[in-house]
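Sample intake sheet
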Amino acid sequence: MAGFNKVILLGNLTRNPELRYTPNGTPVASLGLAVSRRYKQGDELKEEVCFVDIVVFGKQAEHCGQYLSKGNGIIVDGRLQQRRWETEDGQKRSKHEVVAQTVTFMPKRQDGGGGGTEAPAHDEAGYEPEEHV
């Protein structure tokens, strides 16, 4: 049976991106994303927040490290991955994270109003998102 693994999330960064490089020089950025859901329970309006770890590789990782900071809104398009490891004392651990294929920077709202605007195809520095297969 074939599988399908696709995740699309829109939320706000919970911390500044952490940029590092693998031993072979590949940039890797770790992001924390808060995704909220509002719903009504009886007459009461409630909010539920889900915190998700995001991993970004390559040139996009460098751009995330350079241009994003805590509180910025982003859209992440990627896949879910489970990472497994063993601690120094032999305990097995695992966690789910999203491996981003594309990260779209959301414009900052300066007027405080609604109404969305589409993010530009490039920023002031001339960065254009990479095409992904």
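Comment: The two ends are 22 Å apart (CA to CA). The mean pLDDT is 86.
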